[in-house]
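dude i think i finally got it to work??
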Amino acid sequence: MSRTRHFFLRLVVAVVAFSVVCYGSLWAYVEYEAHRAKSMLAELSRVQVGDLEASVLTLTGRYGGFKWTPEPLSPRGQWIDKEEYDYEVTRQSDYKYELGVSPFGTSVARVSRLAQALRAAREVVPMRLQPFFGLRDWGTVAELSIRSGRVHSVSAMTLFEGRSEWLGHKWELAEGMPRYRMPARAYAIGAAHLTMANGGGEMITNFYTPRASDEEVDTAHRFDSRSLTSVEGCRGLCDAAPRPLAYLKQHSDAAWNIIPPPCN
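look at this
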């Protein structure tokens, strides 16, 4: 074998080995971030309305949380519906903690340099090939609202690319429903449209109060977390959140602003 052929053979082996290492490292990184997201959601699910602020500081610190103050409501006199204003006042918090996990910076406010670099690299790969390289885009973001030194509400939203559209799952725990004119319930399931930079989609939403049953709380938190790293991807909400949709079949009165898709 000539020196030239030998050199090129070694070069090919080196390139293949380097590619395998990069591919394996990328998959390991994405799987690690998915594990962090699931751990964060599990910890958040144990937070209750009324918990001391100090009890959630370790959680917010572990997932890069930061504190911010929401805009105050406009004066009551400027509201046409005064009862709606009175209701919104009860939902106002002093400030919030936002925290999140995303391998490519999707939906999270603070993005690491690594996530920025991977997002830039991701965009040069054809969209149809991205899932095969562990580049399916997703992100989980959560908020802990604080009022008078205690947890006032807690919510979490996960967005991820499906086979043909963006999909999402959201849950919120608070003393009341998020809209004034929503029926007073312990648990309600709805849907929302998603508008993303690279496409649209749909998200299932779960709202529950401290009066919800254990079954309702568990249902609200459930979605198929395999969707985050799946090569195949979810086809729709039936794949992404089968548990809440199955609950709706048995409890149609829990539906709010949703036409449940026909799931097998």
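DSSP finds seven helices and seven strands in the chain.
im so relieved honestly
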